[in-house]
Amino acid sequence: MPPVWRRPALVAFVLGLLGVGFRVWLTARDAPLTNSDEATIGLAALHIWRGEDFPVYFYGQHYMGTIEAYLAAPFVGLLGPTTLALRLPTLALFALFLPLMYALVRRVYSPWLATATVGLLALGSDRIVKNQLIAGGGYPETSPMLVALLLGVLAVSRSEKPRPWLTGGIGLLAGLIVWNHLLPLPYLAAAAVLLLVFARRHLATRAGWTLAGGLLLGAFPLIWHDLHNTFSKSFLAVFWHLQTTGTDPSASERLYGGGLIGVPLGTGLCAPSHCAGWQLWWGPAYAALLVIAAVLAYRSPRTPESGMRLALAVAALITVVSYARNSSAGDSPIESARYLSCLLISTPAWLEPLWRGIAAIARPNWQRLAAGVPLAAGVAMALYATVTLAVHVPVYADAAANQPKVIAALAAHDQTRVYADYWTCNWISYQTGEERICAVVGDDLTEGLNRYHPFWDEVGAARVVTYLAPIGSPLDTTLAAAFPDRPVETAANYHLYLPAGGLPNRR
């Protein structure tokens, strides 16, 4: 039996276990900090568990499916409305993602490249871990579903007679992905091309019918929604709206935010909410590596494996270009880098050219050095990003500890109806199991983004309410001017503007 370090599957298992363990530790420390987007999924899970509502889409919008809410509903029912109940499913999804990636890379590239890929994916920057752990809708479940679909496409492409359950499963995954989020469309398109090129003969048989049936079943929530709503609320209309709205940052701002900042953030090389100038070289290097990988795959003999290598490289390039063309890349590059979450699936694509350069002993030393330096630098930055997140954990833990203090202050004054800003409201409603209802107001006290609109109506109908604002925020300034006679109490980093003697609601 070969020693442990010569057994790639075992090494990958150990590395993956360390990655899962790191995320378990983060979850135990309430890191990353929960927010109102995650609480929105929590409210949906709460309503599903109670049988009160079965939402198709993320509350307040007509896209982004609620798979996370349905997965979390049993845990919310068992553990109550806690952040842990929402993150147990996302932890499980990450734990599933790693062996799926190992299986895909092992089949398409090599066992040791698969091990290296798992090792890189086991690391976790702030942006990456947020995508993987926060149940904010659409991200934690996308990667494992996509990799499972690609494995299925590879199996069908290599099979003489694919089994119906396999093609039906591919269709089901594709339908679920389409319902769940728009981001994986480049990878779905690449998978469809692979099927047409390598499995075209199967699509006219029963395999094609089972694939179509699975697709319809997976996309059924989307289809059902569109059949019961106007075209303006349909999937196609929303997709067009998302592609054509927003501000209009300059081309240089999009390139800078989408390529130079977005790629290092989206591939896990940056510290929490910050990408240093010395890290921006990775954007063009990443694009160049993908182009090299695509050329290598294209020049290889035409097989399902080389087709998959080409698909992973091209899908990643399309994802980066599409993101750089979107206004979000120029307007909010730090937060919007979450739209690049699918790039992790293409990790072996950029890794392969460097891996080849190092492994080719016959190459001149300068060529091996040229491949080794950027690989070592990329790994070093990923390690740096993981360490900076670990160092940042006490900040998240302190912020998380403040949330119960705010809820306790509301309970101490027996306040059940609250107005607050968007990033506050829904975690109050969720963590109290809707015993305390919060409605969102803007800085001018008009209605804000209420994703679950019944809360706005319920708080508006209350005779007395409390207003809540982060200390020093624009809303805090507005409230101080609008309600000079209200008693003000401090709870953690918030001001509570309490009703004085039954002071009526002034909406």
TrEMBL record:
Could you list this entry's UniProt keywords, alphabetically sorted.
Answer: Membrane, Transmembrane, Transmembrane helix
Chain segments annotated as transmembrane:
84-105, 133-156, 176-199, 206-224, 281-298, 375-397
- Superkingdom, taxonomy of origin: Bacteria
Signal sequence range: none
Q: What is this protein identified as? A: Glycosyltransferase family 39 protein
Provide the species name: Hamadaea flava
